[in-house]
Each structure stands twice: as structure tokens, then as C-alpha cells.
Amino acid sequence: MRVLGVDFGLRFLGLALFDGYSSLPLEALEVIAPSLILPSLEEVCRQYVVGKVVFGLPYLKDGKLGSLGRKIKNMGSKLQESLERRDLKVSIDFVDEQLTSFQASQDLKGGAVKRNKKRSAENSLAAVFILRNYLFSLENKSKGKNKEPDFDE
User: For the chain, what is the domain count?
Assistant: First the structure.
């Protein structure tokens, strides 16, 4: 099953696709108008034959969901309803996106990404990290763990 990861940025929606083997960044969607986000995500789901969409949720320092997190959950619900009306069976899930944007920014520092493309690249790389976090959480649930795997063991 293909899984689409989504990182909500102020100017771009970072996108990444897990195809069962690896997670790859897709071209970010520029947020021109909020009303275009839903149709754009629907088109990506159709184009890549996605079975699940995972949104990164930004939690506040106190562990609660802030206003942006609530908007993202609402967007996820609207996307699922819209896809169901079009007979597309896509499930929606959410995962904590803590530090994914920071990590993406650090990974791109000093790289060959042009300045005008850097922000969109950061959002899409953050979406890769969102997918990774989601897949780790699934693995940990199946093993009865609640921590990220330790690859040094």
C-alpha cells in the first residue's frame, strides 16, 4: 500500500510517498489559496494510487494540540469524506511531527538546493520524516514498544 506523508507549512505542503520499500520526497504544493489544498491533495492521492494519507500534527510544548493541529485534523476529515464521495478508499492517520522541519532544515544546510527552492524542499523532506515516524510507530505497536527503534543494538 502506498502512503502519502503531508507536512503543512505556511507556504508549502510538503509531500512524500512510501511505496512499500522506501520514502521519497515529492514536489511540494505551494499554498496559493486554502480552498485549493483539498482538491490538490485529492489529485495527488489519485495520481499515486495512495491507500493512506498521514498528516504530521504539531503539538504544543505542553503536549496539547494547538490551532494549527486542529485545522490539520479537520483537513484530514474533509479529505477522507471527499475521497469517499469519489469512491476512493483512502484512510487518514496522524502522527506527531515534532522536530521534523528542524531536522529537514539541518539536513539541507550547505547542500546544493537553491535558495528559492529550499523552503519547499524542507517541507517535502519533513514529510519523509513524518512517514518515517509513522512507520516506526506502527512497528513499535506491533512489537508492543513505545520508543523509536535503536539501530545500534
Answer: 1
